[in-house]
Each structure stands twice: as C-alpha cells, then as structure tokens.
Backbone:
C-alpha cells in the first residue's frame, strides 16, 4: 500500500559534521599546488620535475594527518579553515621551491655566503612542525575556555616575547628576532596569538565598564578617563615597540588588534575613532624622531628615487614585478621575480606570485585569505560564550591585519614592514604560529557548531494550568 | 616545452585556483544553518511533477488509489488554510498543503501556542488518505473541543467548525 507520510517536516537541521566536505576540499587543496609544482617544472626544465611525487605525498600526508585529527577530535569544526590553510601552505612551498631553482639566486648566495642552501626542504620541515603543533593544540586544548584561566599569564608571556628581541642584535634594520644558537625565532608571530588570548580574557571581564560608563559628547560616547587606562598602556607598548625594535608591522598589529577587539566587545564606535587618532598621532610622532621609520616612509613615497634605489631597490622591484605580471601573469616559473635578490621568498613572495599569476591570481590569493578571515568571524558569530567570540574575532583580526600590512607594504599601499605573509612566505615562526592560530580557530568552531545537548523533556507540560469547572 | 602548452597551463592554473575559491564559497553557502522546510511528496494540485514520477514508479494497484486520492484532494470545498480566530495568535493563518500541523506550546510545534491552558503537545491536524482533514487530541491536559464536544478520537473537521484549545480557537477555511 502506498504510504501517505504526513508530508512536511519543519525543524532545525541537526548540525552535520561536514567532515566529508572538508576531505573533498582538502584533496582539491593538495591537487592545486601539485599542479603548480608540475607547471613550474615544465616551465623551467621542460620536463616533469623529479620531486613531484615526494612533494605530493608530503603535502598529502600532512593534510591527511591534520584531517584525521580534526575528524577525531573536532568533529563539528568548520570545513573550510583547514583546506584553505593547506592550499596557501602548499602554494607557498611551490613558490619557494621555484625560487630555489633560480640560477640568479643560487649565484648570489654562493657569492655572498659561499654556499647555497635551498629553502624548500626547510619550509617543508617547518610545515610539518606546524601541523604537529596544530595536532598538539587540538589534542591538548579540549575546550578553548581553558585559555581564559591564563589571561594574565598570557599578558606577561606576550610582553616578554615582545620585549625579548630588544636584547638581540638587529637583522636588516629591525629587531624582531631571538637567536638561540642555530634557531632564530620571530617571537612576534607567537605573541599575536597569546596577546589575543589576553585581550579576550581581559575585555570579557571589563567590557561592561568600558561600554556603559561613558558620557555622550557630540554623538560619540567618551569613555571615562580611568577606563582609558588599558588602551593607553597598549598604545604606549606599541609605540615602544616601534621606537626600540623599529618594527612598524608588529606595532600596527598589536594596536589594531586591540582596537578591533575593544570595538567588538563594547560596540562603541568611539573606540575606533580614538584608536585611529592615537595611531595617527603615534605614527606621525615616531616618524619625526626615528630615522629608521623615516627611511621606510621615504622608500614608500619615492620607491623609484635614486637614493631609494641605492639603499633598497626591493620596493621598486616589487612594484615592477607586479606590473610585469599584468592581468593574467607570466605563468609559473616564467617570471623574473628572482631579480628581487633579497628576501624574494619571504617578505616579497607575494610579488613573485603577483608576477607569475598576475592580477587574477593575486585576487584569488586575497580571496583565500579573506575566506579564512570570514570563517573566523563566522565562528565568532556562532560561538556561544563571550570569551570564544572575542578570541575568534581577535585571531581572525590579527590574521587580517597581518595580511593587510604585508600585502599593503609589498604593493606600496603603506610603508613596508618586516612581516611575513601567513603560510606562504618562507620562515619557520610564521608558518608554525599560524598553524597554531588555525588550530585554535578550529577548536572554537567545533565548540560553536557542536549541536546543543537535547533539552530536558518538555518543561512546558508541567506548567499547563488545569481548567477547573 | 612548447609555448602553447605553457600558455594553456598558465590559464588552466588560474582557472583551477579560482575554481577552488568558487567551490569554497559554495561550501559556505551550503553551510548556512537555520530552519529547513522539506516537502516530501507534496500533494498540492499545482505541483504535479513529483506526483507523476511517483505514480510511474508505483504498481498499478496503488496507482488507482492515488488517483482516488488526488480526486479527493481536488474536490470542491476542500479547505485551503487554517485560521486562528481567537486567542493571542488571532489572525495567524497557515496554508494547508498536505502537511501535518502540530499545535502546542512546545517550540517545535507548527503553531506554537502562547496559551496557559494548552499542553506542550496538544493536538495535531492532518489529512487522511482522502484529503479529509482530521483533528486529533494528543492526550492534552485540558482537551481539544470541536465545536462543543471534547474530542476522544481523531475526528474529521467540517469547514468553518471552531476547534478550541485552551483560549485559542482555530478553524479551517477555503
């Protein structure tokens, strides 16, 4: 007999885990860089590169390990964060390997240091360590709210990490490194995660005071003087970083992060106005005193001036390489971005991509970064606890600011700073720290998207009043 | 490597990169959560295509029966909507499209009654095989009344007859 079902069901969808979508996207995200690798090999040597199998297996293995761990320990996590990060990491590896093949860079390295060491194997190792840290964070951090307990410890840790590079010698004009024997660490990369934890913990407690105790003047809510304390402290910190470490990027990152999180926590536009004013004052003030910053601004304003070219030809070269790329690019392996001799595969890797993939590829890159940030903000919207919300906003905000600062610097929109493009650029600290950042976002999104436990069986029934005749 | 191959690869790579972005955006699109209304085998008269496919698949015996059903569905005087005529939800209408309507204070009811005298799962209204609408009390505390009589069994609803649930009155209209 035909079954007449009572036909329409209206109900909330039970949250699907979406792990299979993630697996599919991951396969795609591994395939794209492998295609790029083959493309580079064919363009440079005219034959299939020998390392392609090893590269595909390596990247695939890293992706598979990360996926299995997510499947087991963060079942309901966002399906896109991992594939997007794997794609960026993979493409970065390809570009670093491509620049390793460049005879110009090899010659230069041999002339300068006597030997050439390829960066791609190192970067593969860093990626593996990054994935290991990713796995470690997901295994150890069962609930992101645990981080809330370490609010002030993380403040101290972040301060130490930010101050430490002052005591180490400057490299290329910026003191952002700690040298521990053979290992060089950029502590700023880790500090950005730790300070986001501090800001979330702090603002979660203080946001009511910051949001409500204020006077309204000319349509703006002016906070009380004593509530201005923390923002002044952070501002002073970032100015100090700028002065003593001459690192514009890190300084911008921390102040911007704090302003974003203040705004999200309090919903007061006045904080953004204050933040912009204070950073403008700080930047102008420091730029008038600090020669290193002045120099950077000078390079930025006149990238093709003779004196700029004599000291730092990279900015001009980067602009030239973007121009050489045009709309569709020269094709992978066929550009001349290796003419940017110094830091071509780290700070300036974006201009290598800009030349070889053109505007179209650049847009795709920025879209991918944008999607990561979007997923982070989406996680914040879905998160049920205020700490998780703030932390997700903070981490994705830090990520977004970093992408803006680096790409803006390379493209000549803002003065260049010594930061690295997350996941793409060569450099251990950056890759490892960003994998940890993605791991925390995945943990928060897992908690946020996990279906709520079933409600207690119908509490309404007991409250029904009985009609008494 | 020939120039042509390299050009094809260059454009192909850009296409693949953008394809990835587009697929990722599609994933986001399918990822938006919320309430989903699934219609399984709707029997609206205007919606004939799913019915045809179902008939084609069904053995002839059943097909006859379904024809009867659709005949019953299309007869004149079948109610098309449910209207709340008294109570806090006065004015609410729900289109009758062959789906079961649950009434009660539970949040997953089709009509969530804000009525102290209603139970969480109070009653349901559903079409039987002939398209006749039936009201059934689901063991409520204060009972469901069709006109003045308290319901004890599933009862067909005449057009325009008031169904009382607590302080709420609903009726079926054309």
Residues:
């Amino acid at each position: 007999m035909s079954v007449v079902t009572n036909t329409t069901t209206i109900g909330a969808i039970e949250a699907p885990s979406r792990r299979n979508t993630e697996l599919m996207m991951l396969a795609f995200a591994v395939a794209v860089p492998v295609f790029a690798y083959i493309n580079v090999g064919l363009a440079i040597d005219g034959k299939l590169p020998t390392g392609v199998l090893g590269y595909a297996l390596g990247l695939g293995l890293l992706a598979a390990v990360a996926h299995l761990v997510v499947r087991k320990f963060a079942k309901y996590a966002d399906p896109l964060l991992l594939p997007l990060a794997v794609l960026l990491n993979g493409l970065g590896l390809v570009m670093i390997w491509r620049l390793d093949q460049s005879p110009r860079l090899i010659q230069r390295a041999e002339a300068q240091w006597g030997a050439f060491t390829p960066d791609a194997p190192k970067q593969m190792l860093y990626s593996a360590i990054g994935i290991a840290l990713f796995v470690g964070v997901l295994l150890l951090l069962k609930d992101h709210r645990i981080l809330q307990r370490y609010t002030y410890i993380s403040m101290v840790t972040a301060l130490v990490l930010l101050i430490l590079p002052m005591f180490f010698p400057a490299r290329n004009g910026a003191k952002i490194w700690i040298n521990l024997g053979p290992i060089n660490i950029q502590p700023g990369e880790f500090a950005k995660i730790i300070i986001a934890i501090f800001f979330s913990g702090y603002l979660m407690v203080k946001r009511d005071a910051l949001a409500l105790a204020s006077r309204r003047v000319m349509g703006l809510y002016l906070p009380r003087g004593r509530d201005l304390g923390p923002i002044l402290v952070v501002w002073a910190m970032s100015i100090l970083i700028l002065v003593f470490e001459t690192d514009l990027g890190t300084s911008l990152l921390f102040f911007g992060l704090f302003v974003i999180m203040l705004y999200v926590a309090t919903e007061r536009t006045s904080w953004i106005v204050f933040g912009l004013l204070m950073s403008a004052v700080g930047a102008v003030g420091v730029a008038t005193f600090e020669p290193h910053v002045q120099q950077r601004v000078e390079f930025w304003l006149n990238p093709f001036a003779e004196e700029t070219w004599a000291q730092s030809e990279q900015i001009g070269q980067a602009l030239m390489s973007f121009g050489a790329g045009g709309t569709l690019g020269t094709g992978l392996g066929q550009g001349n971005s290796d003419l940017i001799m110094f830091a071509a595969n780290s700070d300036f890797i974006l201009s290598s991509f800009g030349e070889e993939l053109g505007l179209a590829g650049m847009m795709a890159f920025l879209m991918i970064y944008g999607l990561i940030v979007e997923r982070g903000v989406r996680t914040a919207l879905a998160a049920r606890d205020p700490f998780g919300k703030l932390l997700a906003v903070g981490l994705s905000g830090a990520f977004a600011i970093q992408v803006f600062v680096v790409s803006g610097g390379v493209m000549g929109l803002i003065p260049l700073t010594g930061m690295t493009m997350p996941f793409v650029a060569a450099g251990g600290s950056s890759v490892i720290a960003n994998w940890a950042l993605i791991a925390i976002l995945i943990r928060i999104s897992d908690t946020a998207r996990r279906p709520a436990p079933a409600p207690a069986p119908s509490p309404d029934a007991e409250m029904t009043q009985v009609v008494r005749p | 490597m020939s120039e042509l191959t390299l050009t094809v690869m260059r454009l192909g790579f850009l296409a693949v990169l953008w394809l990835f972005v587009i697929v990722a955006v599609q994933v986001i699109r399918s990822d938006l959560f919320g309430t989903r209304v699934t219609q399984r085998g709707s029997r609206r008269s205007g919606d004939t295509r799913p019915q045809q496919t179902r008939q084609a698949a069904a053995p002839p015996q059943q097909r006859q029966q379904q024809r009867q059903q659709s005949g019953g569905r299309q007869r004149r005087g079948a109610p098309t909507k449910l209207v709340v005529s008294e109570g806090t939800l006065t004015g609410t209408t729900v289109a009758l499209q062959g789906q079961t309507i649950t009434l009660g204070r539970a949040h997953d009811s089709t009509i969530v009654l804000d009525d102290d005298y209603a139970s969480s799962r109070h009653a349901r209204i559903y079409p039987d095989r002939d398209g006749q609408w039936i009201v059934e009390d689901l063991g409520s505390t204060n009972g469901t009344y069709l006109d003045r009589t308290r319901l004890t069994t599933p009862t067909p609803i005449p057009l325009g007859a008031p169904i009382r649930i607590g302080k709420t009155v609903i009726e079926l209209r054309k």
